[in-house]
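Summary for the steering committee. One of the milestones for this cycle was to obtain a three-dimensional model of the protein with zinc ion bound, which we needed before selecting residues for the alanine scan. The sequence and ligand used are listed below.
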Amino acid sequence: MKKMWSIKQINLIPWIMFLLFQFETLNGFNIINRNEWRARDHLYSESITEDVRYVIIHHSYNPGFCQTTDACKASMRSIQDLHMDFNGWEDIGYTFAIGGDGNVYEGRGYGIVGAHAPNYNNRSIGLLFIGDYTHSLPTPYMLNVAKEFIAYSVSQKQLKSDYKLYGHRQVRETECPGQALYNEIKNWEHWTEN
Ligand SMILES: [Zn+2]
């Protein structure tokens, strides 16, 4: 007969699970903060006051895919310039972005009202995939980082655990986040038809 585990060992299991989870979330991706990509200061920012219950997925279309961290930082700066100088917004519109280098880039950041999806800006995370995903998908690595980042956001209480995930085109007239990426996210657990 196999030896039963002792009570002492059983008590360790939740701790081991916890440590594995922490290891995963801490090592699954890096967040490149605004200082690191040399973001301009926002003109003003407004705090989110209600529960964040949505993730809205975008693609940048242009700029296209960025391979290196330097290139992705430059993409973030060009998107911010476009949003501030051309659109006249107070900051880059998105909450966070995923680069082709596998890093997560802080846009407006957690808890700040975005400018990426009308009617949802005050209760969503706007998550951008840098690149054009009309005909091809982000790399598997990028897709995985996005999923890990969303799970991390729930673990940090920045997103409700029963959140709904939408593609941008579901909340306004746009081709964003590209047909290929839209087909992909429709398979994700929290994607919801609207
Ligand atoms: Zn979009």
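Key point for the committee: Residues 30-185 form a domain with the Lysozyme-like fold (CATH 3.40.80.10).
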